[in-house]
Fold this sequence. Notes:
By secondary structure, this protein is of the alpha/beta class. The chain has helices spanning 18-29, 41-51, 65-79, 102-130, 151-172, 194-199, 203-217, 229-240, and strands at residues 9-12, 33-38, 55-59, 84-87, 133-138, 176-183, 251-254.
Amino acid sequence: MAGRLDGKVAIITGATSGIGEATARLFAAEGARVVIAGRSAERGERLARLLGGNAVFARADVMHEADIAALVDRAVERFGRLDCMFNNAGASTPGDLASLTEQQFEQAMKLLVGSVLFGMKHAARVMKPQKSGSIINSSSIAAHRYRQSGLLYAGAKAAVSHLTRMLGVELGEHGIRVNAISPGAIATPIFWGGSTLAGQMTAEENARKQAKLEQNLARATPLPRSGLADDIAQAALFLASDAGSFINCHDLVVDGGRIAQFFERPRDS
């Protein structure tokens, strides 16, 4: 049976853990040739070996435009084209108004907004001559609703959502679709320190934290379960595939309905 991404080439940033890893696995299973991008060579090479000959790891720090440009060049050199750019890399960022520092602001904007903007820039230079392509940007319900994350993170993700709409209009005439995904509370290691800390823990410790997190997040959404990395991967698959060929300038909320509610389920007594 043909996969939904047969013949397509995709770059996924932040692909060595969490949502990015789940998306890389799904895209490869659906026939895509995947460039796994991240900072951890150990995790990236391991995932590439697991996914087989249609996957390759490319080390990239998306805080630097040169790394993003080289990443796109690597995809074209290896696979001949680029059909999907998933600008997924990111991290939680501290900082409230009273304690906000210039350094925190600069780092958050560079990581969460700059990486997306330069990802779109370099994906577009390849996709324009092809007259086709799908760019997917990672936003958040924090871009749309109060108290879903910290001030800097929410502001940066709001910029991502708006840039998605603006660039979808600008690039649409070239056959390039630009969309965003706004996850809700998705159970990944970002909640207990991110992939670096998770990598220092045993599988049993991570499994316990994951199970507890899923239980807690299930109380924070109208659907009585936690969001999982694969939920976001499935949304990315739709936007990258021909099934989403008339979707452009859209921010797809994937949160089990959390964005619509103003309460959380009380904890069991």
